[in-house]
Amino acid sequence: MKLYIKQLAFNGSESFPIMDESGQTKYFAQGEFYSRGKKIRVFNLSGFEVCTVQQKASCVNQKYSISVEGMHVAEINRDMLTLHPELEISGLDWEVLQQGGIHEYSINRSGKHIVTVHSRWMDYGPCVEADIAPDVNEIAVLGVVLTIDLLLYAAPNINFLVVGG
After folding, report:
1. pLDDT digits (tens, 9 = 90+) for 100-154
2. 2-160 topology per CATH
3. What's the rounded Cα separation, in Å, for the pair 107 and 6?
């Protein structure tokens, strides 16, 4: 399953569709600012909220919590105190491997492919393509990809550091 997410939608304040490989809208995301940070809510076509990415308050780090259908699944932390900020993912036993460019990375679990992410130009502009393995929870993957790309939009020089859990 491939999902396409419009680039530059990751500033956290826009609404944007998430398309499948046939160009049909599969999910709809609503970004918003609130008093304590950014929040992205993802809805299916029936209007049910399937994923939430929410920034958590922190003085020195950027932290985001990812929930799928109301259940917390992961937290992503960006360490702001280093010259090259590192990204830490906890709650999932996933390994993130940077492949080259800004939106070029893959995620594996115990050597098994979960998703490959890269930039791609579509009819409606630049997008991030997430090629998700068939036996993986695509909503959890979508939450992680949205969070990573939200962080990459703000600071493209992130180093990937993964902590399973």
Report:
1. 766 788 888 888 999 999 888 777 677 889 999 999 999 999 999 998 877 776 6
2. Porin (2.40.160)
3. 20
